[in-house]
Structure formats: C-alpha cells, structure tokens
Design brief:
- It is built from eleven helices and no strands.
- It is mostly helical and 348 residues long.
- Helix 4 packs parallel to helix 11, helix 6 (139-165) runs antiparallel to helix 11 and helix 7 (174-229) runs parallel beside helix 11 (295-343).
- The longest helix is centred in the middle third of the chain and has 56 residues, at 174-229.
- The termini are far apart.
- Residues 1-8 have low confidence and may be disordered.
C-alpha cells in the first residue's frame, strides 16, 4: 500500500513520522529555489497541495522570486563594475610604473614613455567613468533593499504555512507533513547554502591572503635589489618599476577583499551554519512532540530557525556598509591617480 494514503489513525506516532518523511522526501540541490509549482510536481499529499496553492502562500513565493531576482541582478552589476574599476586602476598603475623602466633602460625613451603615460591616462579615465556609473546607479542600495525584501518574503512564506498547521485536529498528518516540508525546503536547504558559501568565501579569503603576501614579497625583493644593484649600475633602478607594479597588485587584492568581504562572510556564515545545525539536532524531538499534538513546539522550532537567519541578515546589513566604504575608496584612488599623473613630468 502506498504510505501516502495510509489512514493516520491506524498508525502509531513513529509510523506517522516516517509516513510524513516519505511524503516529502529527501533534500536535493535545487531545494533552495523557492518554487511551489515545482514542489507540487512530486508532492502527492492532497492537504499540503491545497495549502501550497493558497493565494497568500503563492503571493509570498512570487514576491520572494521577484525580489531575489532583482537583488541578484543588482549584486552582479555592482561586483562587475567594482571589479572593472579595480582592474583598470591596476592596469593604469602598471602602465605608469613602466615609464620609469622605459626612461632608465632606453637611450631614446620617446615615444614609448609617452605611449605608456597615455595608456595610464586612458585606463584611469575609464576607471573614473566606471566609478561614476557605480555610484550613479545606486546598486548597493538596490541590492540591500531587494535582498531584505526577498528574505522577508521567504520567512513569511514558511510562517504562513506553519500557521495553517496549528488548527489541525489531534492525530492529523498535516502538521507532521508541513514540518517535513519545512525541514527539506527551509532548514536543510539553508544548511546546504551556508555550508557551500562558508567554504567558498573561506577559500577566496585564503587566496587573497596568499596573493597579497606574494605581491608584498616581490615588493620587498625588488626594492632591496634596486637599492643594492643600482649602486653599481644606475640601469638597475628600473627594477623599481617591478616593485611599484607589485605594490599596486597588492593594493588591488586588498580592494577586492574589501569589496567581497570574503573573510567576514566566511566567519558569519559559519556562525549561522552552527546555529542551524543545532536546530537540526532538535528535529527528532520536535517531530515526536508534533506527533503528540504539541503544535506550539512546531511554531517555536520554526521561529528558532528563522531567528538565526534573521540575525545573519542583520549582521550582513551592518557589514555591507564596509562595501560602501570600499567603493568610496576606489573613487579616492581614481582621483589620486589622476592627480599624480597630471603632476608627473610626462603626464603633465
């Protein structure tokens, strides 16, 4: 007999819990996508299917999808523009540094030095234009606003479903089925998300640290060699160009970390993951309580999971202010580079 259609009154609590698990199934990589229409394709329980098609539930899911899509678009545009500014500044710094090597190594540095200076001017100008586009589009504010709205609608979606379980009569399977739905599409989906993101941000942070350390090592070596070797032959002073370029590369890596917040995100995501896993450890106790009719514990369990997610979002909102500061620093670097270029002998 298909367990989805076993009458709950002929089963004990443990059998009812197993029945609810089977009705919802195990998690999959796509569960983080809040799509009731997709869920309906493999959920046979008639009561849950009816709830998922309620107007308020469908509206919350639709709003989540809309705000989530807009938040992702704003985030991608923000990161693309900021990365472009960072890369253009690095190119401009490298071009400017090459002028020193060209002047020292070539008997007739023109027109090569002028070409390098012109290239640095063009790249810094493009960086300035991208920086103005970044500020004018107000992408950071849009990202924050849309992300906050999306997360609010996701929590509201599951809260609406939870409230619909509380009037169920004693012995009804609906609360247990809804608990398993919450387990799969919210708790386990968020655990999978924070596990993946904490690892990826930690790996990116380690890469940035290694990159910065190597660039600073090149700065130290090139600076030392320049000081030593140029005392024997002035042509070795061209090595200073390598030191300046490596220094610019280290600054670029620091700017990238300030924009991505990898280290801070990894730490915050690990903390949120720990909280979610502690909630997951209580799941079996909550299952037994719900089977015994303690629907209030179902609501408390949902609130505990959501409080951890809301706390993470509040921390993200506070930390995201540092991204705004990093964007402002990019603008300052652009203006400083233009000023330095304008006052240099070739740039002027």
């Amino acid at each position: 007999m298909n367990p989805s259609f076993v009458e709950p009154e002929v089963m004990d609590d443990e059998a009812r819990i197993e029945d609810a698990k089977q009705r919802i199934g195990e998690s999959s990589p796509d569960d983080a996508i809040l799509a009731p229409e997709t869920h309906l394709s493999h959920i046979e329980d008639p009561l849950l299917r009816a709830l998922l098609q309620h107007g308020d539930v469908r509206t919350a899911a639709a709003k989540y999808h809309r705000h989530d899509t807009q938040a992702l678009e704003a985030q991608q545009q923000l990161r693309s523009l900021a990365s472009r500014v960072n890369a253009l500044l690095l190119g401009a710094a490298a071009s400017s540094s090459s002028i020193m090597a060209i002047t020292v190594l070539l008997d007739q540095p023109q027109p090569y030095a002028a070409i390098a200076a012109g290239l640095a001017t063009v790249l810094s100008g493009l960086a300035g234009a991208s920086r103005r586009q970044l500020g004018g589009a107000r992408l950071l504010e849009e990202w924050m606003r849309e992300r906050a709205s999306a997360e609010m609608q996701r929590l509201r979606y599951f809260k609406l479903l939870t409230r619909k379980a509380t009037p169920a009569p004693r012995g009804s399977q609906l609360p247990l089925v809804l608990l398993e739905y919450f387990r799969r599409y919210q708790l386990q989906a968020q655990i999978a998300f924070y596990t993946k993101k904490s690892k990826s941000h930690a790996a990116a942070a380690r890469t940035t640290v290694r990159t910065t350390a190597r660039a600073l090592s090149v700065v130290a070596i090139a600076t030392g060699l320049t000081a030593i070797l140029s005392s024997f032959d002035p042509a070795w002073s061209a090595l200073a160009a390598i030191a300046l370029t490596a220094q610019a590369f280290a600054a670029s890596a620091a700017n990238r970390e300030a924009l991505s917040q990898d280290e801070r995100n990894a730490e915050r995501y690990r903390g949120t993951l720990d909280g979610l896993e502690r909630c997951a450890e209580r799941l079996d106790d909550v299952r037994r309580a719900v089977a015994a009719g303690r629907l209030d514990l179902f609501e408390q369990f949902v609130d505990s999971v959501h409080e951890g997610l809301s706390a993470e979002h509040r921390q993200w909102t506070e930390d995201i202010g540092d991204v705004g500061s990093a964007i402002d620093r990019l603008g300052d670097l652009v203006e400083k580079f233009k000023l330095d270029s304008a006052t240099s002998p070739i740039g002027g």
